[in-house]
Design brief:
- By secondary structure, the chain is α/β, with parallel strands linked by helices.
- The protein has 2 domains: 99 residues, Rossmann fold, CATH 3.40.50; 158 residues, Rossmann fold (3-Layer(aba) Sandwich), CATH 3.40.50.
- It is 46% helix and 14% strand.
- A 4-stranded parallel beta sheet has the order 2-1-3-4, sandwiched between helices.
- β1, α1 and β2 form a beta-alpha-beta unit.
- α5 packs antiparallel against α6, α6 packs across α10 and α8 crosses α9.
- It is elongated.
- The N and C termini lie far apart (57 Å).
């Protein structure tokens, strides 16, 4: 059996950028086996030399040349990593050289500028948005809906909470979420169409999530195995009623069955931007 090719994500800060770009590129080779290692906070020449040695050791052990995705900003540290002889993809170096040629002067290297706290207002807005999402989760904090940028609706376990938190952390959006339950479908919430009164003033902020019944049953079974709540019949019924309700109210719906949280969030954010333009 061929050993997995060593892959390193090396950064002088969190390594998020290196991992996002690197894993995106690796996904284009689904038949290949990769042994992935993240080395964040390589913020000195000594640490860069140690990282380079680790890459060399992995090469000797596997007898396969490693792939290295690097976002190191210090030129000396980048040179130390290049010297290891692996396939080093210097993400910042490649694109910065192109930008310097166009802009006409060198950059001012500062590690962690994008994922750090250098933009205090942006950082605070994201933290505030996360706190909002937690306070307005699962139908809580109805008095906060006026402030919400977005309100996600859907049946229980349709992905509302993780999507709310991701959009808060990634985009700084204040996202509430509200569960649609059987009571909403039988008209007992005060609306002939079942939309709760607390949501009616905020129709423009509403976005719905749905998914395949089989996937919902699987997710619910992990929480309450062998229960009526997780049965395929219950899931089919609730999803059908929820989708009818959302369509009757003109609520845009995203099917999350085969989509990641990143994809779902991007689609919803784009729909908000489109609404504001119209």
């Amino acid at each position: 059996m061929t050993p997995a090719r060593p892959v390193y994500f090396i950064s002088d800060h969190t390594g998020i950028t290196a991992e996002i770009i690197g894993k995106s590129l690796l996904s284009q080779f689904p038949s290949e086996a990769f042994a992935q290692v993240s080395l964040p906070f390589v913020d000195s020449l000594e640490k860069a030399n140690s990282a380079a040695q680790q890459v060399c050791d992995a090469w000797k052990l596997s007898n396969i040349k490693p792939l290295v995705f690097s976002t190191l900003t210090d030129p000396a540290a980048r040179a130390a990593l290049d010297a290891c002889g692996a396939v080093v993809m210097d993400i910042y170096g490649h694109f910065l050289n192109m930008m310097v040629g166009e802009i006409g002067y060198p950059p001012e290297p500062l590690r962690g500028r994008f994922h750090g706290m250098s933009d205090d207002n942006s950082y605070r807005s994201r933290i505030d948005a996360v706190n909002f999402a937690l306070a307005a989760d699962d139908g809580l904090g109805l008095e906060k809906y006026q402030r919400a940028d977005l309100i996600l609706v859907g049946v229980s376990r349709s992905g509302k909470t993780p999507t709310s938190l991701y959009m808060a952390m990634q985009y700084g959006l204040c996202v509430a979420n509200y569960p649609l339950t059987p009571e909403n479908f039988d008209g007992s919430t005060g609306s002939p169409h079942g939309l709760p009164k607390s949501l009616q003033p905020f129709r423009a902020k509403l976005r719905g999530l749905t998914l395949a019944p089989e996937r919902l049953a699987q997710i619910r079974s992990e929480r309450r195995p062998n229960s009526a709540y997780a049965s395929i019949e219950t899931c089919k019924k609730e999803l059908k009623q929820a989708e009818l309700l959302m369509r009757s109210e003109g609520i845009p719906i995203v099917d999350s069955t085969h989509r990641s949280i990143e994809e779902i969030s991007t689609m919803i954010k784009h729909s908000l931007s489109s609404d504001r333009k119209n």
